[in-house]
Amino acid sequence: MKTRRQFLSTVLAGVAFVKAGLLFPIKVFAEWPETAFSIENPDEAMAELFGDRAIKETDKIIIEMPSGAENGAIVPITIKTDLKNVKTISLIAEKNPVALLAQFSFSGIGNGEYLRTRIKLAKSSNVIVVVEADCELCTTKKYIEVLKGGCD
Amino acid sequence: MTIKIRTKTEDGVTTVSTMLRHPMETGRRKDEETGEVIPIHHIREVSCEVNGENVMTAVIGTGISKNPFFSFHISNAKVGDILTLTWLDNLGNTDNIKTAIK
Fold first, then answer.
1. Which tens digit of pLDDT belongs to each residue from A9-18?
2. In 3-state terms, what secondary structure has residue B68?
3. Closest Cβ opposite residue B65 in set A17, A110, A118
4. B68 CB contacts (<8 Å, ≥6 apart)?
5. Where residue B34 falls among pLDDT bands split at 50, 70, 90?
6. Which among B36, B93, B95 is the top mutation candidate for probing chain A, defined by the most A β-carbons within 10 Å of its own β-carbon?
7. Dihedral sign, CA of B16, B73, B59, A28?
8. Is ipTM strictly over 0.90?
């Protein structure tokens, strides 16, 4: 049973969201890959994203991430790469309920050499980065210890 | 306005940093009082343009933290160029911001 305060706060939150924009999307920029965002297994997620294209290990992608995270709900991650003409960067968590975290696409004067964001991690595991660039598809991964899972 | 954005241009590279206010509910979390599952509610797409030309588009899922933060680079933009950033979520909510590149 919600208190009056909680009820009001929910209503106000709903109003804020309606006010923030339209109820119906005015445009879709990219087709949101629904299937890719429903897959738990990281290998299957990569197969869905990249088909049977070869993905090469590289040392030209640097993942900066703490070696341990107390709170898996907010894990900062920075990706830097020397690879030229980056088209997409995909972030995949090895042991999350959904493997694919996000895919970033760069065009025009957008430069995929640097990216920073914050991710949720369910447990101690690898974070896998796949970069699509002149190298075709290149990947690296980094392990992180997670104390408290952040995926619920 | 749900978007905070900062731009800084140095040696031909503009760093764009942005924070979007959004709960990014996974659809797995339970309300502590009622025990009911809080419905999935997350930003699906983020798009950034400079002078009307797309520079970055992201498709994101519930694995991005609450109040999503992103920082990325643009090359050879000019100070004063107009940058717009838009987000769209799974319920059809959207917001956008327009700023002059610093």
1. 555 555 555 4
2. coil
3. A118
4. A117, A118, B19, B20, B22, B24, B43, B46, B60
5. very high
6. B93
7. positive
8. yes
